[in-house]
Write a structure and sequence with these properties.
This protein has 321 residues and is an alpha+beta fold. The protein has three domains: 80 residues, 2-Layer Sandwich (Dna Ligase, domain 1), CATH 3.30.1490; 128 residues, D-amino Acid Aminotransferase, Chain A, domain 1 (2-Layer Sandwich); 89 residues, Phosphoribosylglycinamide synthetase, C-terminal domain (Glycinamide Ribonucleotide Synthetase, Chain A, domain 4), CATH 3.90.600. Helices cover 29% and strands 28% of the residues. The strands form five sheets. Strands 7-10-13-17-14 form a five-stranded antiparallel β-sheet. The protein has a four-stranded antiparallel β-sheet with strand order 1-4-2-3, covered by helices on one side. Strands 6-5-11-12 form a four-stranded antiparallel β-sheet. A hairpin with a 2-residue loop joins strand 15 and strand 16. It starts with a helix and ends with a helix. Bound molecules: glycine (GLY). The site of glycine (GLY) has 7 residues, from loops.
Amino acid sequence: MKGLLKKYHIPSAFYATFTDREEALRYIDTQAAPLVVKTDGLAAGKGVVVAQTLDEARAAVDLFMKEKAFGEAGSRVVVEEFLRGEEASFLAFTDGETVLPLPTSQDHKAIFDGDKGPNTGGMGAYSPAPVVTEALHRQVMETVMLPTVKALAAEGCPYKGVLYAGLMIDQGVIKVLEFNCRFGDPEAQPLLMRLKTDLLDIMEAVVDGRLAEISLEIDPRPTVCVVMAAGGYPGKYENGKAIEGLAKAGQHQDVVVFHAGTVLQGDAVVTNGGRVLGVTAIGDTVQEAIAKAYQATAEISWEGCYYRKDIGRKALDRKGE
Ligand code: GLY
């Protein structure tokens, strides 16, 4: 991805890649902290170290390349510039030519309130993300999404599906952190709750290369998703806890409880994963959506269940609500 972005002048953090540990360490000696050290391969979301000092960056290289904590995924590492700013998720459908953006959204990656603690797959999300103004939205389309889809086609691997750009936005400057070839979780929940167009019609148009014929109908009201997780996540956690209150939460108006890590045991719904449920609500204002999501969340419980209490706070702060 970094190679593609560089080749096609799509904005991203500067970087270097290494397959040789000594070379990586020598490069780090020439840099200033903070730095980001990543495994090139997939490491279940754990292959990224934000090193506040050069010693931490060297330790990350050793973790990946000497101790081989993530096996082959760490045989090549990426050392990247550290980006400041606010993250936003930008998802779009594409048939390889047309790019049809979904509304903007923002994830809450850290486990604890106030964005503290280790990163997770995502503890909650809301849509729209006020950090992406209309002008920035245009800029993302023109400088990131359309050029990326064109670049993939030019490289002989046209892409059809959902393209998810993880962005860092700092005082109006956009840089790509990552791309995923899928919906975001938990961004998909608030986005799909706002999407009124039939998803199947969109997907068929994607497959058939007819996306230019589709326009997305979007509910203008904001949505908020609170992720309920197993106690201990993103570290060790236990499965098989009986979930209480789903029926009651399901009676709340304007709320959908999306299941992620659950399984049926007889008639009982029990936990079966770190992130268990995404309780998602739509409201006339962000404040109302937050209140509705948390009212429904409060109906649900199981032994050790955990959720953040500040999902959507950043949207309120930006809007001055
Ligand atoms: N929520 C982040 C992701 O889906 O990758």
